[in-house]
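Dear H.,

Thanks for agreeing to be a second pair of eyes. The structure we're designing against is below in token form, covering all 308 positions.
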């Protein structure tokens, strides 16, 4: 097989799957968005924001990267947490390249060691250590974090990035592309993500809930897009349901006089209109579903976790 890399003259076409793995809030979704040059994955300061596996496609003349944003690996406390771990570990097992993200601002700990054990056992031919959030970490902190992260497992290479400052994002894409196997385009060139519009609608609504209610109840919140229909005049009508576990949580989501849910709807609609390219009417309903995070059927219906 040829050893020429992407960008070299007469280079072979390379394609494959790149799994972004790491602890919650390591910066996986932020890096994915930076690689895409647009927002496709939701982000928030809340741990375990990512619940849906997201596959984003980056096409170059000589390669196709399918970057997989996975839920943060963590010690699960309920069925939802177990499903999220199962989803992330499943992607890790099947990836051609594994990028292990470590937050430059937080000490490397037992959680990182646990993730590293799974990375070390993965069959991927190329394993990359990615130190994230370099824009808010000093040089000495970055150096210390790199040294600690190197000891976690065997890595083929390492890279320091800042997705928010666009530092080394292109280098990440180039480096990963060069280590993909030779292969075909797995997805058509016009396809950016493998999520449906309904999936993305639900995610944008959930992101706004996480951003505004992160101290109150974010992990008890789930969102399902019930319908998305286009009218003759071109606008989209959307109905989405917000799930909470208790009546008191429903009151928090609604807010005094309905102000919170109105705020969430206005902010989510902006992202949805950008996504769909048209005006949007968004109808949000809040429903109490006791213990939904312990109900595997409800978790799967919401699209969270693994796909058996």
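And this is the sequence the design step returned. I haven't edited it by hand at all.
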């Amino acid at each position: 097989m040829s050893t020429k890399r992407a960008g070299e003259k007469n280079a072979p076409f390379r394609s494959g799957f790149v799994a972004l793995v790491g602890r919650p809030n390591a910066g996986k979704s932020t890096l994915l968005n930076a690689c895409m040059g647009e927002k496709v994955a939701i982000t928030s300061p809340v741990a375990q924001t990512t619940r849906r596996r997201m596959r984003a496609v980056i096409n170059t003349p000589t390669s196709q990267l399918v970057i997989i944003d996975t839920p943060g690996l963590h010690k699960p406390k309920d069925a939802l947490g177990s499903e999220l771990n199962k989803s992330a570990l499943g992607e890790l097992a099947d990836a051609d390249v594994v990028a292990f993200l470590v937050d430059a601002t937080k000490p490397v700990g037992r959680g990182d060691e646990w993730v590293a054990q799974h990375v070390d056992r993965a069959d991927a031919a190329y394993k990359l250590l990615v130190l994230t959030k370099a824009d808010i970490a000093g040089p000495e902190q970055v150096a210390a974090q790199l040294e600690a992260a190197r000891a976690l497992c065997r890595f083929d290479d390492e890279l320091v990035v800042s997705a928010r400052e666009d530092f080394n994002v292109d280098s990440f894409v180039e480096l990963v592309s060069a280590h993909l196997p030779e292969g075909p385009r797995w997805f058509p060139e016009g396809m950016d993500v493998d999520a449906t519009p309904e999936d993305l609608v639900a995610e944008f609504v959930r992101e706004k809930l996480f951003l505004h209610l992160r101290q109150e109840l974010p992990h008890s919140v789930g969102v399902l897009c019930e319908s998305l229909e286009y009218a003759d005049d071109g606008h989209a009508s959307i109905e989405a349901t917000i799930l909470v576990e208790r009546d008191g949580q429903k009151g928090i989501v609604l807010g005094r006089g309905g102000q919170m849910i109105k705020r969430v709807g206005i902010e989510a609609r902006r992202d949805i209109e950008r996504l769909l390219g048209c005006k949007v009417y968004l109808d949000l309903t809040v429903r109490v579903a006791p213990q939904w995070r312990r109900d595997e059927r409800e978790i799967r219906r919401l699209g969270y976790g693994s796909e058996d």
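Two observations from my side: The chain is about 35% helix and 20% strand. The radius of gyration is 20 Å.

Warmly,
E.
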